[in-house]
Amino acid sequence: MLAEYDAAAWHATDAVQMANPKNAAGEQYLAKKENGRWTVVFGAVDAEKTKFVIAYQAEQLANARND
Question: What local confidence, expressed as pLDDT, does residue 66 receive?
């Protein structure tokens, strides 16, 4: 499961950096697998440290290959 998490984060990070590389730097990410597909969100904790504010979301559309 850890290897799958790592692969999902890797592919999602590549996609977000290609879409908007200036905003991707310094953001944190969280990933979850639901119904066999990964969703990775990128963002930061708010000033009050009570919420994770999502800036980008990447979703797995098909089974990913781990090349």
Answer: 54
